[in-house]
From TrEMBL:
Xref: Gene3D superfamilies: NAD(P)-binding Rossmann-like Domain (3.40.50.720)
PANTHER family: UDP-N-ACETYL-D-MANNOSAMINE DEHYDROGENASE
Organism: Streptomyces bungoensis
Name of this chain's protein: UDP-glucose 6-dehydrogenase
Keyword NAD: yes
GO molecular function list: NAD binding; oxidoreductase activity, acting on the CH-CH group of donors, NAD or NADP as acceptor; oxidoreductase activity, acting on the CH-OH group of donors, NAD or NADP as acceptor
Keyword NAD carried by entry: yes
Assigned protein family: Belongs to the UDP-glucose/GDP-mannose dehydrogenase family.
Annotated UDP-glucose/GDP-mannose dehydrogenase C-terminal domain residues: 314-406
């Protein structure tokens, strides 16, 4: 088997296939990424780190940046990022390049499975049609399916072997081949009659989450206005065994799923002159959430007769979610940039992130934040096992996670 793209989806996928007894060729265009994998310096769940340690020297695991290596595989799994640009327009650069490479090196009998979240029709446009143009009979000579990834970085409760998969191929034979591959790493496979239905399934999953997160953030602000604590209310509502699923407020949404994936649907609909106002409003709210956090910082400091300009502000946790060192689309970056533009002296402390770049400057993580004086501490991400007891002695704490207890000077967004 070949896995094209060894990022936060591709590498765990390759390791899961290895653990299931398969020979795996891992292909990535970045030599730096390949070197990091060889050294074990990658952000993975502990169980996947164990797998990497076990298989790093395994002759059945080949790492290469040579795309021609996919010709040796009976199955090719494409796992490349599908971000959006700063205008929230899908960036198809990596996806188009990976699909073109796989098509160029395809051989008869291969199953080619795309897992990257994207717009409806991608599998057909970037794989089926180019393969047909090469002279292949798709569904007879080669087989093409879409199976959206369901990797939850940093969450051991949602490991691949506990998470069902969805797949849709060009015909029944393709679906059976895809199911046979996916069953090696997933407890169940739900088959759909087309790749388009599988593509829309993933968009529905993450758009559902986006809409509900936007609602949770708005609801939390409504609770603050009424003097109520939102988490206890959400937990009370969650006791209802039907019709409710808990979502929780926070400083914003990061990663390459929730803040990105629904824009693939909106982009495609706009091209058809079709609106989706509820999704559009939710994504606008998500995009604007970091600015609302910044405004809350301004308001809280103003209540203490302190200007943002010159204020010493510490951001605790800058990764986009607990338990990972991933900064992709992290709201913390936008929050820090905007506070710095306001003239604040902004620093951060994160045990998993040693440094980050804002503009031209590289900022190191503050390793002993309790030893410094801060006008305000903004709690953005709380990693498992991190002791934040020192916050009780801080003059002003803005808890954007809504989860801190025993902090007398705490405010919420």
């Amino acid at each position: 088997m070949a896995v094209v793209g060894l990022g936060y989806v591709g590498l765990p996928t390759a390791l899961a296939l290895l653990a299931a007894g398969n020979e795996v060729v891992g292909v990535d265009v970045s030599e730096d990424r390949l070197a990091a994998i060889r050294c074990g310096e990658v952000d993975l769940l502990p169980s996947d780190h164990d797998r990497l340690t076990t298989h790093r020297e395994d002759p059945r695991f080949t790492l290469t940046n040579d795309p021609a290596a996919v010709q040796r595989a009976r199955t090719v799994v494409i796992c490349v990022p599908t971000p959006v640009d700063r205008h929230l327009v899908p960036d198809l650069t990596a996806l188009s390049a990976a699909c073109a490479t796989v098509v160029a090196h395809a051989v008869p009998g291969q199953l080619i499975m795309l897992t990257s979240t994207t717009y409806v029709g991608t599998t057909r446009e970037l794989l089926v049609e180019p393969l047909t143009a090469r002279g292949f009979r798709v569904g007879t000579d080669v087989y093409v399916a879409f199976s959206p990834e369901r990797i939850d970085p940093g969450n051991a409760h949602h490991a691949q072997d506990r998470t069902p998969r969805v797949a849709g191929g060009t015909n029944d034979l393709t679906n059976r081949l895809a199911e046979a591959v996916l069953q090696r790493t997933a407890p169940a496979v739900h088959l759909l009659p087309s790749a388009e239905q599988a593509e829309m399934t993933k968009l529905w999953e993450n758009t559902f989450r986006a809409v509900n997160i936007a609602l949770a953030n708005e609801f939390a602000e409504d609770c603050r206005e009424l003097g109520l604590e939102p988490l206890s209310i959400i937990e009370a509502a969650a006791t209802k065994p039907y019709g409710f699923m808990p979502f929780y407020p926070g400083p914003g949404v990061g990663g390459h799923c929730i803040p990105c994936d629904p824009h693939y649907l909106l982009w495609q609909l706009r091209a058809r002159r079709v609106s989706s106002p509820l999704i559009d409003a939710a994504m606008s709210a998500i995009a604007g959430r970091p600015r609302r956090v910044v405004q809350r910082v301004r308001d809280i400091l103003a209540e203490r007769a302190t200007s943002v300009s010159g204020a010493r502000i510490l951001v605790v946790g800058v990764a986009y979610k607990p338990g990972v060192a991933d900064l992709r689309e992290s709201p913390a970056l936008e929050i820090m940039e905007e506070l710095a533009e306001d003239g604040a002296k902004v620093e951060f402390s994160d045990p998993l992130v040693t440094s980050l770049r804002l503009g031209a400057a590289v900022h190191p993580s503050v390793t002993e934040p309790a030893d410094r004086e801060w006008d305000l501490v903004l709690v953005h991400t709380v990693h498992p096992g991190v002791d934040l007891g020192w916050l009780a002695g801080q003059p002003l704490v803005l808890d954007a996670t809504y989860r801190l207890d025993s902090v007398p000077s705490k405010a919420v967004v």
